[in-house]
Amino acid sequence: MFIQTETTPNPATLKFLPGLDVLGEGSADFTTEEAAQVSPLAGRIFRVAGVKAVFLGADFVTVTKDEATDWAHARPAILGAIMEHYQSGQPVLMGAAAGGHTEGGADDGEDGAIISQIKELLDTRVRPAVARDGGDITFHGFEKGIVYLHMQGACAGCPSSTYTLKMGIENLLRHYIPEVSEVRAVAG
């Protein structure tokens, strides 16, 4: 098994591409070892010293380290944990968590059509670009012209995430959907 590693715009995060499906579809974001108990893969990665967060995407894993940890030491151990997981035959997610992340929020009410447009643009234009950088973005709501989004994976805590939200996503949504006036980040 050959696992490729890519840098991300976030220097504290690396993207690992095992060459196999990770989740296939959806995503899962783990910011603590306790939360990762539903994922044998994320749990193995959290056992590597200095790992702060693990994000699972369709065909990649992004790992965020703490400031004191050097990638030269953590990277080989993370590669080993990923390889060990795939050799074990265990699922990536266990039980009810196996469906991965699906976005919540009803599309009914007076803003239903606008919310549908927002989600469509996020799915077709934004998420593929964000995934290339090792992250994901999830829709959390639309109220009084403001779109609430959550950045995950390499994008969470990335120095350029504010620029991505304001100059990229906000401008895109405002261009196509006049009812959108602003985009704001929310915590998970």
UniProtKB/TrEMBL annotation:
<dbReference type="Pfam" id="PF01106">
    <property type="entry name" value="NifU"/>
</dbReference>
<dbReference type="InterPro" id="IPR034904">
    <property type="entry name" value="FSCA_dom_sf"/>
</dbReference>
<feature type="domain" description="Scaffold protein Nfu/NifU N-terminal">
    <location>
        <begin position="3"/>
        <end position="89"/>
    </location>
</feature>
<dbReference type="InterPro" id="IPR001075">
    <property type="entry name" value="NIF_FeS_clus_asmbl_NifU_C"/>
</dbReference>
<protein>
    <submittedName>
        <fullName>NifU family protein</fullName>
    </submittedName>
</protein>
<comment type="similarity">
    <text>Belongs to the NifU family.</text>
</comment>
<dbReference type="InterPro" id="IPR036498">
    <property type="entry name" value="Nfu/NifU_N_sf"/>
</dbReference>
<dbReference type="InterPro" id="IPR014824">
    <property type="entry name" value="Nfu/NifU_N"/>
</dbReference>
<dbReference type="InterPro" id="IPR035433">
    <property type="entry name" value="NFU1-like"/>
</dbReference>
<dbReference type="Pfam" id="PF08712">
    <property type="entry name" value="Nfu_N"/>
</dbReference>
